[in-house]
Amino acid sequence: MKQKILFDYISPEYSLEVKETYTLQDFKIVRLKDFGGIFVCFCSFSTTKEIEEIWKKINGILASYLTEYFETDFQKWNVYFFLTTRKKTLPSLQYKIENDTFFLSKNSLTN
């Protein structure tokens, strides 16, 4: 049985550009094929200091970039941003990120 692919990569070239511009460990944007086209962004940082310094910039560029992919106004509520690092994130930074209401839902994950 052939495996079903549940997502599409959104512009791998753009993801590479963002990764190199901000010297990230990894950066990917995908659109889930089911569930009405939910967008998920994955961003890996080396340190929590990097997260603190540039998460708002990346949030802003995602806001301007992803809007061209929206087929309906409802899709802007279905964008999720996962920030990861192998280091421990301060609860205050995690709270600040996850409670920011600009553009997309954010989740800060640590190892």
Brief description of this entry?
The protein is an alpha/beta fold and 111 residues long. It has helices spanning 12-21, 48-66, 91-98, and strands at 7-9, 26-32, 39-44, 79-85, 105-110. The protein has a 5-stranded mixed sheet.
SSE topology:
Layout: E1 7-9, H1 12-21, E2 26-32, E3 39-44, H2 48-66, E4 79-85, H3 91-98, E5 105-110
Parallel strand pairs: 3-4, 4-5
Antiparallel strand pairs: 1-2, 2-3
Describe this structure in words.
The chain is built from three helices and five strands; from the N terminus they run E-H-E-E-H-E-H-E. It has a single domain, classed as GMP Synthetase, Chain A, domain 3 (2-Layer Sandwich). The model has no long low-confidence stretch (mean pLDDT 88). It has 111 residues and is an alpha/beta fold. 33% of the residues lie in helices and 26% in strands. Strands 1-2-3-4-5 form a five-stranded mixed β-sheet.
Percent range for helical residues?
Answer: 25-40%
The overall average pLDDT, rounded, is 88
In total, the number of strands is 5
The neighbouring-strand order within the major sheet is: 1-2-3-4-5
Please describe the biggest sheet, giving its number of strands, its sense, and whether it closes into a barrel.
Answer: 5 strands, mixed
> What shape does the CA trace take?
globular
CATH class reads: Alpha Beta
Share of β-strand residues: 25-35%
Based on secondary structure, the structural category is: alpha/beta
CATH hierarchy: architecture: 2-Layer Sandwich
Return the domain count: 1
Pfam families: MComp1 (PF20289)
